Amino acid sequence: MAVVVLRIAKIVALWTLLVVIALFFGIPLVWLVLSAFDPNASPEFRIPSTISLRNFMLLAEPVSGVPPLMWIVNSAIISTLVATIVTITSILAAYVLTRYSFRGQGAMLTAFIVFRLIPPLILALPIMILYRSWGMMDTIHGLVLAMSALILPFTMMIAESFLRSIPVTYEEAAMIDGCTRLGSFLKITLPLAAPGIATIWLLSFVTSWSQFVLPLMIIKTPSLMPASVGLQFFFGEYGRVEYGKLSAFSILYSLPVLIVFLTVQKYLKRGIAGLVSR
Amino acid sequence: MPSIERLKDMLLEGTGARLLILPALALIGIFVVFPVIWNIYISMTNYALTGPRARAYEFIGLENYVRILRDPSFYNTLRVSFMFTVFSAIIGQAFLGLGLALMLRAKEPEGVLGKITKALKITASILVFIAWIIPEVVAGYAWSAITSKGGLISMLLGINDDVYVRYPFETIVVANIWRGTAFSMILFTAALEGIPQYIYEAAEIDGAGPWYRFRHIILPLISQAILVDFILITIWTYGVFTMPFMIVGPSGQGGVAQIWTLYVYYDAINVYEVSYAATAANIMFLIVLAMIIVYLRAIGYLKKW
After folding, report:
1. In-domain check, residue B62
2. What tens digit of pLDDT does each residue of A178-219 get?
3. Are A16 and A113 in a shared domain?
4. Are residues A77 and A8 in the same domain?
5. Is residue A114 located within the same domain as residue A42?
6. pLDDT tens digits, residue range B197-252?
7. Do A161 and A98 fall within a single domain?
8. How far apart are CA B77 and CA B248, in angstroms?
9. Pairing with B269, which of A48, A68, A123, B55 sits 20 to 30 Å away (CA)?
10. Is residue A61 included in any domain, yes or no?
11. Do B39 and B75 share a domain, yes or no?
């Protein structure tokens, strides 16, 4: 009897803890969803009396002269460019890093770890200063280049470990059959690395999609802004915030990230696990 | 002039192919390495965001560094950053993440009870995960809203005011725990999965209690993961900008919650003292660099192990 009571007490304790944790992590998210569908949204946590899509509809109408949906389109354009640049350059670099050996290679890999861990603000400040004299302030290409460089050390490490896991012997066999060195890489290794390449593209897409500091420092014109900084215009003067529209916008803006992470989830967990068992 | 054939050979075979690394190196060189160096130069000038010192600035040597080391607001931001990192990363994220990982792998009983346990586990871990992946500005907005006057948190605390104004430091600490716990949870879950089941069973048969098992079996086996986790989340938390920026603003509610990233932003953008901001950023960068070196040492040590 005592054993049964103890076991039930244990289960109840575990449930209580899990519920408390779920509430702590869930409340801000649930509030976000509830207020997005609430035409009279406020910071208050409540079930909307009428559920409507009005907040979402209003996103097509201008805020500070720009329809908020345009910020999402801008984000899509910027992130697509960044992801494509980053994927191509990191695959090329990883090809050299895994297929050739040269002096300073170890130092280079160490440097990438350092670059990957530098807080973005440390770079955003001097980049802003440099862009002011290079005439690259407030330009999409300026933002895309800086963002690509910020993400590159991270994707390069992923690309490197992916290409390293594919044996060079496949390429060597193709070369014996008369393929050129690069040809064998393009025809044999690249298709094998396709899932890895897709992962790199998606991860760099969402990283740039969520990036805030760089566009905050570089882009000043509302119509050029990506969603992360365009969002500030929902905060009106004197602390008045348009909660309903902002929540609706936040949900639209978060959706691509959620979708991508659900697809690459397994790989991500393996990557983090790789930090402990090398 | 080399023929097309020769060019193709150079590019596709042998040494020429190594040049394919150049686009990546150029990007990183121009937009990562050069800015870091440029920041050092700017910190030795009197460059400002607007006004005459924006157009014609002068080299002033180490003046900014002398000034900042006598500036009480700089010591304030150092202290706030340190406390923020300790409370939010080590005490918050790491412990909550480890606790969650242990809970997630707790054995589920048979039948309905087990199904409920499993559903709760999945719900909790999905919410922790979503908090980690949504864009930082969205997370910052949600937290600033629920800690506003009339929001759930102020109701719970019985405060008729903005919680982030009354308790700015506590708000950004808790918000950042909320944001970053998932990483520790996933890392520790992976580390715990790496422990073979028979070790637990053997310990249980030998009569080891739960605390003994945790202290003498689990803890030593995941010590590598703990080391890696502590260092990484410390580096990341130290560099956090966006969420605190959204919640307490660049002034950090009059300095109370002004972590160094806010301090740098505030100096550069709000009071136009860009070179002073660069000075602060450089000193803070040295601290990050020291932490990164510790990390490199640690993973080097783990590899040999």
Report:
1. no
2. 888 778 888 888 888 888 899 999 999 999 999 999 999 999
3. no
4. no
5. no
6. 888 788 888 888 888 888 888 898 898 899 999 999 999 999 999 999 999 999 99
7. yes
8. 14
9. A68
10. no
11. no
User: Phi then psi for A120, rounded to 5 degrees?
Assistant: -55, -35
Residue B55 in 3-state DSSP? helix
Is the predicted pLDDT of residue A101 greater than 50, yes or no? yes
Q: Verify that A268 and A162 share a domain, yes or no.
A: yes
pTM over 0.90: yes
B238 interaction partners in chain A (CB closer than 8 Å) = 119
Q: How far is B252 from chain A (nearest CA, A)?
A: 16
ipTM, two decimals, is: 0.92
Whether B141 has a pLDDT exceeding 90, the answer reads yes
The CATH number of the domain holding residue B221 is 1.10.3720.10
Separation of alpha carbons A128 and A136, rounded Å: 9
CB contact under 8 A, B146 and A28: yes
Indicate whether B113 and B248 sit together in one domain: yes
A contacts of B30 (beta carbons < 8 Å): 145, 149
Distance CA B225, CA B203 (A): 22
Residues of chain A positioned with their CB less than 8 A from the CB of B23 = 88-89, 92-93
B24 and B153 inside one domain? no
Judgement on whether residues A138 and A263 belong to the same structural domain of the protein: yes
Q: Do A117 and B295 touch (CB under 8 A)?
A: yes
Both B38 and B96 in one domain: the answer is no
To the nearest whole angstrom, how far is the Cα of B281 from the nearest Cα of chain A? 6
CB atoms within 10 A of CB B114: 13
Query: Which of A111, A98, A250 has its CA nearest to residue B296?
Result: A111
* B172–A contact, CB cutoff 8 A: no
| Residue range(s) defining the domain that contains residue A26 | 2-54
> What is the token pair recorded at B2?
């080399």
CB A5 within 8 A of CB B108: no
Whether B190 sits inside 8 A of A276 (CB atoms) is yes
CA distance A273 to A252: 31
Residues B11 and B109 grouped into a single domain:
no
